[in-house]
Amino acid sequence: MSVSHATPSGWRKSSRSTNTDNCVEVGHVGDGVAVRDTKNRAAGYFTTTSAQWAAFVAAVKADKFGA
After folding, report:
1. Distance between CA 29 and CA 8 in Å, rounded?
2. How far apart are CA 60 and CA 52, in angstroms?
């Protein structure tokens, strides 16, 4: 499964990180998601499929990473 090479749009960051730049931003790209570092937007972004992103978000919510 691959993600479109379209330009990401609709960048947003978590509502829980409005007072800081230490976060990531998420944007839409084709049928997937793009992720970039808010502090260094010029460094680029990575893309993932919508299904992979949903699995990652579910794992974070379930505290699978033990942070």
Report:
1. 4
2. 12
Give the global pTM.
Answer: 0.76
Residue 28, strand partner residues:
9, 33
**Single-letter amino acid code for the residue at 12:** R
Q: Are 30 and 49 in contact (CB under 8 A)?
A: no
Question: What is the Cα–Cα distance from 19 to 53, expressed in whole angstroms?
Answer: 24
Half-sphere exposure of 28 (CA within 13 A, CB side): 4
Q: pLDDT digits over 6-52, tens only?
A: 789 999 987 777 677 678 899 999 989 999 998 898 999 999 999 99
